[in-house]
Amino acid sequence: MHLPRLPFVAAEADPSRPVIWTVSVSRLTGLLGDVIPEFDRRARIEQINLGFEEAVAVINQRLRQEHCDVVIAGGSNAAWLRSRLDVPLVPIQANGFDLMEALARARRIAPRIGLVTHASDVPTFGSFQDSFGLQIEHRRFVTREDARDCIADLRANGIEVIVGTGMAIDHAEAAGLQGVLLYSADSVRQAFEHALELTHTLARSVTRTARIPRRSSPPGHGQVLLGDSRVMQDVRKQIALYAPHDSTVLVSGETGTGKELVARQLHADSVRRGRFVALNCGAISESLLESELFGYSDGAFTGARRGGRIGLVEAADGGTLFLDEIGELPLPLQTRLLRVLEEREVLRVGSTEPTPVNLRVVAATLQSLEQRVQMGLFRRDLYYRLATLRIALPALRVRRDDIPLLARAFFQQLRGLDAPLDEDAMVALAAADWPGNVRELRNLMDRLRIHWQPSDGPVSRARLLELAPELGDAAAAGAIVPGRPSPAHLQQLLATHRHDREGMAQALGISRTTLWRWLRAAGLA
């Protein structure tokens, strides 16, 4: 296939600025060209004046060699590209003011007006028409053939001017009708603002760890989940089985067992082409969590950003949304998340019109969601919806045979050498309780690689215990002693006190330091 040369807007190379490609044909191309100079200092912007199959072919070819953060497109072009590109897409969406202005211009041309939009555009037109008593013929299309048929039908019914997307206007003018572009410069500006906000949102949520390369190794294998034990082999088999499907997955396990790594592997081994977006539901206050997750519309509240803000649900469109510590999600937001899962659409804070989304949700919890449901802290219907597929990660202490393998692999990653532990030191590692699980073991290997020098020779058990004295009393620290609640009771108390550790310590009559030790020994810290 011959790929056409692309026109573009030149911009000074600056790797710190996000890269935005606009995709358009017909009238929208000129409108984008008028607005782009307003944003070329904030982003590197390039126009791709193609549509549909040609645009997909060119963009996918260029993405093999070039980087793009966000694509902007409008109407049917946006709908076509959304599921066919391995990059987030922000649609140019007409609002009520655009519609009023376009209809006013059309009425100055002719009294009989037809409105032709893609199926995803102008969802409020029915109520708008009723409110203003307008007699306007509205048609929606999905394919180019649909658009052509809509124009032919309207022309046969005496319509003289068409308000619509660029494609609709092209067909209208080919049929001898006059056309008025539905989009305005303001709607294009808003799309750019949303695109820039999306790059910032993804930078906050995705770049904490590098994205796993797709298909760098066979599904379920590779650098993510190490271990030859039977339980880990079973986990990898589950990941390989679940990855190709879009059903939600609930990953459970103690802290440090690798729940996010499972979610990333599910995404990497899937056919989803969008981003992996992660959010820790317990790390953000409820007041901020709502706008972070669902976004907000222009003027939603005092201090809201002009043009609104995209949320992580929309940022994960076409990809995977990972919700860690899902048990900490407040009840009001659980209802909104359930709507996303059931309706495949998200309603921004302050908005009345939902935005369709295509994403997979993977949730993780170290708590018992069943217990939280029984205590009235978690919606039963949401729990069942999230737990369509389940993966339970084993604690490190129940797969001790994997500990030497993990220790060697972590030290190799951190220092480029095999772990310099003698046999007795390795036995000590395998005998520990590891309340922090794999994460704790990796942190210990990091500590070891800083202290150890090749001239020191193999690390003995005594030297290891000097560097990690917590290993020496691990068995005693993990035991249940008189007056100390069991791990299950501690977990229930955490849920009851909504992780208010000061209040929990007061209720137990102990200091916060003692509570921290108890929680750490139970793997809950």
Tell me what you see in this structure.
There is one protein chain. With 525 residues, this protein is of the alpha/beta class. The protein folds into 5 domains: 19-91, Response regulator (Rossmann fold), CATH 3.40.50; 96-182, PrpR receptor domain-like (Rossmann fold, 3-Layer(aba) Sandwich); 210-392, Rossmann fold (3-Layer(aba) Sandwich); 397-471, Helicase, Ruva Protein, domain 3; 480-521. Helix content is 45%, strand content 13%. The chain has helices at residues 27-35, 52-63, 75-82, 96-109, 125-132, 144-156, 166-174, 185-206, 230-242, 259-268, 286-294, 312-315, 331-343, 369-374, 380-386, 403-415, 423-431, 437-451, 461-467, 474-478, 487-496, 501-508, 512-521; strands at 19-23, 44-48, 70-74, 89-92, 113-118, 137-141, 161-164, 178-181, 249-252, 276-280, 320-324, 345-346, 355-356, 360-365, 389-392. It has a 5-stranded parallel beta sheet with strand order 10-11-14-9-15. The chain has a 4-stranded parallel beta sheet with strand order 2-1-3-4, with helices on both faces. A 4-stranded parallel beta sheet has the order 6-5-7-8, sandwiched between helices. The termini are far apart.
CATH fold-type name of the largest domain? Rossmann fold
Strand order of the largest sheet: 10-11-14-9-15
Total beta strands:
15
CATH top-level class of the largest domain? Alpha Beta
CATH architecture of the largest domain: 3-Layer(aba) Sandwich
**Count of helix runs:** 23
How confident overall, as mean pLDDT? Answer: 79
Quaternary organization: single chain
Q: Considering DSSP H and I runs of 4 or more, what fraction of the residues is helical?
A: 40-55%
Globally, the shape reads elongated
Domains (count): 5
- Taken as a percent bin, the fraction of beta residues is 5-15%
Low-confidence stretches: 1-13, 206-223, 474-483
Major sheet: 5 strands, parallel
Radius of gyration based on Cα positions: 28 Å
First-last Cα distance:
57 Å
Q: Going by CATH, what is the homologous superfamily of the largest domain?
A: P-loop containing nucleotide triphosphate hydrolases
Broad structural category: alpha/beta
